[in-house]
Each structure stands twice: as structure tokens, then as C-alpha cells.
Amino acid sequence: MLEPSEGIPAVIVDQAALLTAVAQLAAGTGPVAFDAERASGYRYSQRAYLVQVRRRGSGTHLIDPIALTDLTCVQDAIGDAEWVLHAASQDLPCLSEVGLRPRRLFDTELAGRLLGYERVGLGIMVEKILGFTLEKGHSAADWSTRPLPEPWLRYAALDVELLVELRDVLETELEAQGKLSFAREEFATIAAAPPREPRPDLWRRTSGIHRVRNRRQLAAVRSMWTARDRIARERDVAPGRVLPDSAIIEAVLANPADVEALTRLPIFSGPRLRRSARTWFTALREAAGLPEDTLPMPAAAGGDTLPPPSRWADRDPVAAARLAQVRARLAAIAAERTMPVENLLEPALARRLAWSPPQPVTVELVAGMLRDGGARPWQVALTAGPVADALTEPAQAESPAAGVQQTASQDAGSPETPSRPDVPDVPDEGA
């Protein structure tokens, strides 16, 4: 499919055109397909730079949310109609900023995961399920560009062209597999979720921070990260385009004595970073002058943060054995239900239960901890009993190491609260 069925619609940039689109959406029927394009990797903000809406009987509408910052009239036009999005949690925050919030939701990506599809990208799923190959290739474009090029608009319109049709097939498959109620609970949770709070200590996500060995160096990373974040916010530029993470780490490890020494580092030798070198050196000096008791602690020190699973066997072999047993039970249920284990139960929640189970271990107390941790009713129903059994099984001597080694990949991108970076950076090579 190289062209939208009704052609590429003109971008709506004025109130009169918006009201015409609103009337058409109100006259349409059935679910409403939504999508949004951001400028991740180019801009600091995660705002929407294009909103795509499609409904049967209405056609596709491309709306410029920079020119039209309040789209509540679109919300009013569709009322209680179900929204259809692919990977809804990515787009809902920026849609909410312009007054668009779903009352009912169907997430085609999440539906694909629950159904056990190995690959759940929109293009792959449309091709596999509907038999159409969509023209792709502009997802990583700078959507803050104005005017938007026609090939980008074609791509944007195609993203919602078949979304409702995909939703209909997936709903049928969910019902056939006995998972439709699971999906509805998941969708309702996403639709009702409050705005996400900024994650604390985002500077700890600096790529390469594992090379930093002491608290003074951690303070230097924090100081440079904070200076970069301030500049990026003021300029509305992605932080990685101001200063790549690799430059922060290299400067901290080198600990240059003056600005000239900083610019002798290869990564600071280019004209752009040489011009801003004094800013980064000042940040390093500020960290060097901090009192010892104000230096940041290592991430795993203090608080409720759990140690990495790879260290459980040394820190608490019994807990490591419990984790291996819990994971084995969850993996068996996920395989039986043909879904990823992380969709059956959040890995961080399984780890917290294994590290500090309720006392005494009963199905009721485990279920309570699962609910308190955010598990949905369907997840509690499927996992509370097996997890309680796993927590009370006798620990096997070889279970800790084996369990950690066999499931290390589960934790390779599974922080305690899985989410995409709040402010994605472009790779250092492109900065």
C-alpha cells in the first residue's frame, strides 16, 4: 500500500478546517484510529508535531498541533467512541497535552503481545494479519520540520489507514484464545493511568555510567548532565545533540585540570564542543568542590532498590532460589497461554516478591502484594497460586546460579518500572 485510499489529506492548520474535520468525525461510525508523531532525538520536548485521526465514514485527518494547540473539539466530536492506537502508552501523553484523552481504548501492539506474536511492530502486523505492506521509513524523522514533506505525510496517513481493520481481526483472535477479557483490563488500565511523573535521578541513566567508580565521579556526571539538561531545555534540543553521553563519561574519567586539557580529549576536539568547553569544565569544577556528605550514593545503596539479580546468589542465596522458582512457574504459565512472561507479570514485581515475600506465604497475601504492585485482576488470578507455591518450595542448592544465568536476559532492559526514556537521545555518533 503506497498511497492512502483517499489520497494524502492536506494538513489542518486553521480553525475553520478543524471544525470541518470535527463535523466529519462526528458523522463517522465505529472506533477512531489515532496516531501522533513527535521529534524524539531532535527536540527536548515530547510534544506532538502531527496528529493523525481516521474513522469510517470520515476519512483521515492530519492535524498540526503546533498551529492548533487545543483539540478538545475533536474529543467532543467522538464522545465515548473507542480509540485505536498502536503502542498507546507512547502517544497518549502528548495527545493529552492537546486535550485528547480516551475513554475507551484498544491497543493493537499490546493485543499482539497478548496473542503471542513474536514481532509486534505496526508494519509487520499489518503485513502478517491483513496482507498489506505499508510504506515505512520516516518514523525517526524530525517532525518539527515545517512544512512537512509530502512523503512524510503519506507515511503518517498510512499509519492509521488500516488500524481499525487490524483491531477487528485482533479482537476476534483474542476472543478465540480466551484473552479478550485480559486485553480489556489492560486497555482500561492504560486509558485510566494518570500522567507519568518524571523519573527521579534521570542522570543515572547516562550511557556508560557503569564505568564511574566513586561518589565524586558520580557527582561530576550529575553536574554535567544537569548543565546539559538546562541548555537542552532552553533550546528545545535533544540532550544528546547538545553533548553526547560518551563525552560526559570521558570528561569525568579524565578529570582535566583546565579547559585546555578538556579540549585535548578527542571527543571534545571538534569546533562545536570546543566552543562550549568552559561550560562543561565549570560543571566538573562545581562537582569537585562539593562537600563529601552531599555526594550522591551509588544507585544500589540505601532505599528499597533491589540488587541486580546477578548478585542475588551472593547477597541472599535463598532469595535467589525463590526467584528461580518463581520465574520457572511464570514461564510455564506464559508458555501455556502463549504470551510473553513480562505481559503475564511485570518482572520487577516478581523480583520484589522473591526478595521479600509476605509472611506467612499464603495465596491471599501474595494476591494482595500483586494487587498493591499494580497487577491486574486477570494477572492475579493466573499467578497468585503458582507464585505462592514457588515461594514455599524448598530451595535447591543449585537453583540460585542456574536461575539467574538462565533468565539474565529478562533483566537486561527491565528496570524496576519499565518505561522508555523520558527524553530519548540520539546515538552519540550522530550528536
TrEMBL record:
InterPro entries: 3'-5'_exonuclease_dom (IPR002562), Exo_C (IPR041605), HRDC-like_sf (IPR010997), HRDC_dom (IPR002121), HRDC_dom_sf (IPR044876), RNase_D-like (IPR051086), RNaseH-like_sf (IPR012337), RNaseH_sf (IPR036397). One of its GO terms (biological process) is nucleobase-containing compound metabolic process. One of its GO terms (molecular function) is nucleotide binding. Transmembrane segments: none annotated. Keywords: Exonuclease, Hydrolase, Nuclease. This is 3'-5' exonuclease. The keyword Hydrolase applies. Pfam families: DNA_pol_A_exo1, DNA_pol_A_exoN, HRDC. Residues 214-294 form the HRDC domain. The lineage of its organism: Bacteria, Bacillati, Actinomycetota, Actinomycetes, Frankiales. CDD domains: RNaseD_exo. Residues 389-431 are annotated as: Disordered.
